[in-house]
Amino acid sequence: MGSTRDPSSYEYRDLETIEATEERNRSIPTELPLDQIRVSPLVFQPRTMRGNLGEDINFVPELVVELRRNAGEPLTPILVTAIGKHFYCVDGHHRHEAYIEHGWAGPVPVEVFGGTLIEAFVQSWKGNSKPKLNTTASDRTEWAWRLVQLQKMSKREEVQASGCSDGLIGKMRRILKQEGNAVRGKSWWQAQAMTKPDRDISAEDWQEQEAQKLAASLVKHTNLKLALNPEVLLRALFLINDKLPQMLVDEWQNGAYGDDDVDSEMLDI
Prior knowledge:
Layout: H1 12-21, E1 31-32, E2 37-38, H2 41-44, H3 53-69, E3 78-83, E4 86-91, H4 93-102, E5 108-113, H5 117-126, H6 137-150, H7 155-162, H8 166-179, H9 188-194, H10 201-222, H11 225-228, H12 230-240, H13 244-256
Parallel strand pairs: 2-4, 3-5
Antiparallel strand pairs: 1-5, 3-4
Helix pairs in contact: 3-4, 6-7, 6-8, 7-8, 8-9
């Protein structure tokens, strides 16, 4: 592992190499300076860009405000694990970012997770619960797909760890077995698209890229007003095109998102 490589770009296989080749740091600190906590979101951040972008963007500023109100008191401990000689953030990425944005000068509270890399990977998912940001169905599905690609667990263990159905995990395993390296590193929706010859993969890639840019732009330029006021959003879409709201409902119902992405109540319009 080159010394100039940014840990934020590490993938699971990179950390797996470190785990296999470097002696593990056995210390159990209760606090660490921020620059001694490495952040590798491609491994330990289970959230995606889908379904909670507005909430995600707004969360760090809320934590910064909390730090200001705390009069020098830190936030709850960040969960870290030692991989080789360094500590990595397992759960607490937004707290870590808030400390930096706030200009926190001292060490921050941490809790050390003593399990293996694969156990820390699973814990990163389990740790994302209230009162922190909630994870979406899309987050769960995409994280399960990442877990299946690692091929470190039995099917039963993958079901238990992810909370996804036996049928969905089975489908993921079949696609991975059939497509192999062609689907590794792809999102779950991309992997599914690659098994359907009648779908244009490049068009799907373009669609997702454009959707993410549009979502980020809407959040940035409306200050979340649209996301927090669905009635206003609906009216705005109607003013753009009076047929657009119904077109969106039809698209959603016709499978634009998988069953695991959308609660059935959302379609009861």
